[in-house]
Design brief:
By secondary structure, this protein is mainly alpha-helical. It contains eleven helices and no strands. The chain folds into two domains: 131 residues, no CATH class; 174 residues, Multidrug efflux transporter AcrB transmembrane fold (Up-down Bundle).
Length: 326
């Protein structure tokens, strides 16, 4: 561009203003915009775009600090939140402050140019658009700066939140299941043994997702929770029937055989029937549903086989004492 962008914007403004019967002078653009109110920052903090969901009292403090441009104060105020999320929040707040400042300046310039004259909606929109390009800070052509904006950046944040929530939910769910089994079996070893098939199933599920390059989204992140719920049912049923048979005086191998012939068959029938139901989703046209059906079916089969193969192997090898207690 031989002509500087600011000069081009001025020429466009002159031409559009002349079309409306207005003569523009550069002195009219020397205005002092009204002070910032933080309305754009408030709108942002109350929207779903905000990186951090803040309680009302913190939102008000963040708005006051942002109006003073005290970003270090915001960092200290939000020290309990992830630092990376706070950095993103501050970046977005700076953008909103610039937007409000530019909007105030454009409104003041427009009022100066028109002198209170009422223009049509289209003319007002055109002149304010020219003023926007006149006030916006354009990067130097010789040293361009690339900044990621828009939906890709939002998607990256969403992926990070999904991963964080997935890890948190898994840890909490496994811990609660561990406590429930500990209360029921009165055995630390029994609780750990019951969790092993579940953890094995979850690891295989994520391994399959990585191998097939299936992304973690709102649908696939539920698979791990389903694996915990289904896997613990199978483990509890199998363990209780195994204990019952062993307490009747049967050897470990005889107890295992009887358990597989009764509870084991029921577990497999249940797993296969549920798997067949979810396999129906493979005929759908929505890719997320197809992936969900495939992963749930895979998880059902693996969790049932883990309860019928991995758990018995642990019981026979370690011969834990809790299977002999009433």
């Amino acid at each position: 561009l031989r002509t500087p962008p600011r000069d081009i914007a001025w020429e466009m403004l002159e031409e559009d203003a002349k079309r409306c019967g207005i003569e523009v002078k550069k002195e009219m653009l020397q205005v002092e915009p009204p002070p910032l109110t933080g309305r754009e920052v408030k709108k942002y903090l109350e929207s779903s775009e905000a990186m951090i969901e803040l309680p009302p009292y913190l939102k008000n403090k963040v708005i006051k600090l942002s109006l003073r441009r005290d970003f270090e104060g915001i960092k200290k105020l939000l020290s309990g939140y992830p630092p990376e999320d706070v950095e993103y929040l501050i970046e977005d707040i700076e953008v909103r402050l610039e937007d409000e400042e530019r909007e105030n300046r454009i409104d003041a310039m427009y009022a100066n140019i028109t002198g209170g004259r009422k223009l049509s909606f289209e003319d007002e929109k055109r002149i304010k658009g020219d003023l926007y390009y006149f006030t916006v800070k354009l990067p130097s052509i010789s040293s361009p700066q690339v900044i990621q904006t828009g939906s890709p950046r939002i998607q990256v944040r969403l992926d990070r939140k999904l991963l964080k929530n997935q890890i948190q939910s898994l840890v909490i769910a496994l811990f609660l299941v561990f406590l429930m089994i500990l209360w029921q079996l009165r055995s630390l070893q029994g609780s750990l043994f019951s969790l092993i098939p579940i953890v094995f199933t979850i690891l295989l599920n994520f391994g399959l997702m990585a191998y097939l390059k299936i992304p973690l989204d709102n649908a696939t992140m539920m698979i791990a929770s389903l694996a915990i719920g289904m896997g613990i049912d199978y483990a509890i049923h199998f363990t209780h029937r195994f204990r019952e048979e062993h307490l009747r005086g049967k050897s470990l191998k005889e107890s295992l055989k009887r358990t597989l012939e009764t509870t084991g068959v029921a577990i497999m029938v249940n797993a296969i029937s549920v798997t067949m139901g979810f396999l129906a989703l493979l005929g759908g046209s929505l890719i997320p549903l197809v992936r969900f059906g495939m992963l749930v079916s895979f998880t059902m089969l693996v969790s049932s086989l883990s309860a019928l193969m991995l758990l018995p192997a642990l019981l026979l090898y370690y011969k834990p004492s809790y299977i002999e207690r009433r």
